[in-house]
Amino acid sequence: MLSGCYPVLCIDDVAASAAFYREHFGFATAFESDWYVSLRHPDRGHELALLDAGHESIPAGYGEVARGMLVNLEVDDVDAVAARLAAAGVPIVQPLRSEAFGQRHVIVRDPGGVLVDVITEIEPAPEFAAAFGG
Fold first, then answer.
1. How far is C-alpha 51 from the geometric centre of its chain's CA atoms?
2. pLDDT at 22 (0 to 100)
3. What is the pLDDT of residues 41-58, one digit of tens each?
4. What is the rounded distance in angstroms from the CA atom of residue 6 to the CA atom of residue 39?
5. Distance, CA of 24 to CA of 84 (rounded, Å)
6. Suppose 82 and one of 18, 35, 96, 123 were both cysteines; which one would form an S-S bond, judging by CB atoms 3.0 to 4.6 Å apart?
7. What are φ and ψ of residue 123, in 5° steps?
8. How many CB atoms lie within 10 A of CB 4?
9. Each residue of 14-45: b (16+ CB within 10 Å) or e?
10. Cβ neighbours around 47 below 10 Å, total
11. Alpha helices in 1-134 (DSSP H)
């Protein structure tokens, strides 16, 4: 039986990425070493872990930094979070915008190059409403 599920991102600078998620999104450290940091959000227990891409626990030939993925973080007020991130100098790779499929979001880059899609759900356009079960 599945007892947990969370992403582990291979990163070059674990400390810098951990600081980013703690400072900008309120994650707390659950475990920390120089090569691995496990983060947990105190509000709902969401987890995210960061692993040094060169660590020996990664099978040979697979020690690459995370690329080609998005970490989605859903928030209550993406407009406020986007303004705060911009003021803090966080690199914004896609400006704040609303999508017909039911999201208002901004995409930023963390220190390791991972894209973070910060999202607030909005009412989808009629052509997408039927795609949502429930």
1. 14
2. 98
3. 999 889 999 999 999 999
4. 10
5. 8
6. 96
7. -65, 125
8. 6
9. beebbebbeebbebeeeeeeeebbbbbeeeee
10. 15
11. 14-25, 78-87, 126-129
Rounded to whole angstroms, what are the CA distances from 18 to 50, 87, 97, 117? 7, 19, 27, 17
Please determine, for residue 95, whether its predicted confidence score (pLDDT) is greater than 90. Answer: yes
- Residue among 72, 67, 63, 29 nearest 49 (CA): 29
pLDDT digits (tens, 9 = 90+) for 104-115: 999 999 999 999
**Structure token pair of residue 4:** 């947990």
Pairing of strands 36-40, 28-32: antiparallel
Which pTM value belongs to this model? Answer: 0.91
* DSSP string for residues in 56-77: TTSPTT------S-EEEEE-S-
- In this predicted structure, what is the pLDDT of residue 116? 97
| CA separation for the pair 18, 133 (Å, rounded) | 35
The pLDDT confidence band at residue 134, using thresholds 50, 70 and 90, is low
Q: How many C-beta atoms lie closer than 10 Å to residue 93's C-beta?
A: 12
The pLDDT confidence band at residue 129, using thresholds 50, 70 and 90, is: confident
